[in-house]
Amino acid sequence: MIVKSQGIWLTLAQDSEGPRCGAAMNDLSEAKGQALAIQGDRIIDIRAAEEIFSLYESDQILDWGNCLVMPGLIDPHTHPVFLATREDEFEMRNLGKSYVEIALAGGGIRSSVRSLRSATEDQLTDLVKERADGFLALGTTTIEAKSGYGLSTADEIKSLRAIHKANAEHALDFHPTFLGAHEIPDEYRDNREAYIQLLIDEMIPAVAKENLARFCDVFCEEHVFTVEESRRILAAAKNHGLQIRIHADEIESTGGAELAAEIGALSADHLGAISEQGIKDMRDAGVVATLLPGTSFFLNLAKRAPGRKIIDSGVAMALATDYNPGSCHTQSLFMIMTIACIHYGITAAEALTAVTVNAAHTLGLAHDRGQLKVGMRSDLIGIDAPNARFLPYQFGSNPVRHVVKDGRVVS
Ligand SMILES: [Zn+2]
To answer: Which end of the chain is more exposed for a tag (fewer CB within 10 A), N or C?
Structure first.
């Protein structure tokens, strides 16, 4: 297959060890009038269009006109396995109820847990596949996907199996995360220690034994899991060969970022209340900060992660949707880039680096995707935009015109 476009090509191809941080996040490599040759699921060449056409023959030539061409987007934090949506809570919040009030009245994560437990694995698989269509149509070709609305061994395993089935049957790539430590389920409200023991002694070993997840995540937050509890759960996960990501310091600064650095997490996420020490520790340990600006926007929180400061402090930043039925119901990384630019004071180039190269790093996939480069996976998208700055500038519409995943046209 050969893909050509007269528009801008964002190859993001400067080589660097590890994720991009500081000024390197602003480095975009742009070219014009390129073409790219694909064999199987790999990019085998990229150069001026006339050279590609003199070197390769193909019966499948895709002419993307004036589209901007860039690597498929990577969403490193999503919760796509749920049954019921929660638009009623969205309206309640807009009419003045707080997220905490709604949670105390039985809404929030706990309502998603009740509904997920009533669903079959096949029902969940079908829903996850439908949602995968949504991600691909919006230019996202790889996602990290968490369980976390089951909160029992059987329901967490059911959720992770749904992700695996969807991954096998759908073009979108899923990288599964076990998030049994998303909340304390109702039946353990009076005995949280017993739930933590269940996570450590039964759920994590079961997930690891069936190879159902690459990562383990914990919601480390005041009123959810303390730093000490999170440390025990994540240590057990590490012992079972899982890699670590953490929901850290979203609302209160409890030392989640520091724990992420201590335990060698790939990513610490949210960070709305990260401390000075947390920023330093993450930089020194090379933990990526995955920020979720859609969530603070959707919950209308005044407190936002210090995105500008995090980049300027030398911590590598990634961006994700946090797609979930409660606190952020969007699948669009373009929308996320717009909010990030406005709320964090960052550039289009920094936002693009955050949803490609750096997002790939948080999933341990930077050798394989996140850039248009020879040898990389042939995941690429064609966007109706004249230049890179236009991407976050235009919001609320889908600019994606073409999607190629693993060398196949999928959208
Ligand atoms: Zn989340």
So the answer is: C
